[in-house]
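Re: beginner question about structure tokens

> Can someone show what the tokenized structure looks like for a real chain? I only ever see the sequence side.

Sure, here's an example I had lying around. Input first:
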Amino acid sequence: SEAKISGRKYLTYILGTSIGLVLPAMLYVYHVSGDLTFSSLGLLAGKAPPHVISILVVMFVFGFAKAAVMPFHAWLPAAMVAPTPVSALLHAVAVVKVGVFSILRVITGIFGVELLCSGQIAVFISYVAAFTILMGSLVALSQDELKRRLAFSTISQLSYIVLGATLLSPKGLSGSLLHIAMHAFGKITLFFCAGAIYVATGKKYISQMGGIGRRMPITMLAFLIGAMSVIGLPPCGGFISKWFLLFGTLEAHQSILLIVFLFSSFLNAAYFLPIVYRAFFYPENHQGADTKFQEAPMWCVVPLVITAILCIVLFFHQGPFVTLAQLTFKP
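And the corresponding structure tokens:
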């Protein structure tokens, strides 16, 4: 079945990269440092030659396949066979954020910012992340199935976090940590909306969703808020994290990456906002669905309303998150 194939693909990617890349890298770090305890100064300064440091960075970044950095990303769209609530947790909290958080911890706690600033490997990884951001967004544009479009959006958004970390600037690192939280609330809202649409209408393809906003205004308004947060538009929390990431590129003097950020935000809008426009302004498409549908049951609508409200709350009350992020990466 499709679920078994997807499960095997997930295990192949995760176990293969963990055993083949992360485990040898960890063993080498322990061999040369005698320690695996994270340190703000790093563990490898003066203990490994530059070319070995570069190899280790590549092994860790690609070894954490849960971060879905290309080319180790194919397991994520395949996981869309899971029920929508499971997909929501997978994309917002439970799986993918473990990968990017692990990369953040390794960069700051094993290598250290000063050590990576002395070489060029961080720049190489940042360009790999930039490529993933753009390709994930471009592929998302071509997807008609809503959950697959959200899946490729997640691939792109995760690399924002990786890119921010490899900028090695205070605002870039802070923006990475902030984007873990801000993206979580935006993306879980979008997946809850996708689930509510499917429960109420039986539709999962965007081309079939014309006019559903007039019958499901609460769901589609929540979808708009979640989309705005992921795009990085005010007044949603995603604007805060992307603002930090944007200034992180300026701190790092990476004008090309600044252009990538701006262009990718345009692509984010291009694959999200037409869904909302179609839902409210296109004529209804009754193909394969109940013509008398309304909002999904309350147990579907209440969670997406709560997470949508939190997307807005995080814009106005982001202070504790910003303070924590800045303290975490304080020089």
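Each token stands for a local structural state, so reading them left to right follows the chain. The chain has a mean pLDDT of 85.
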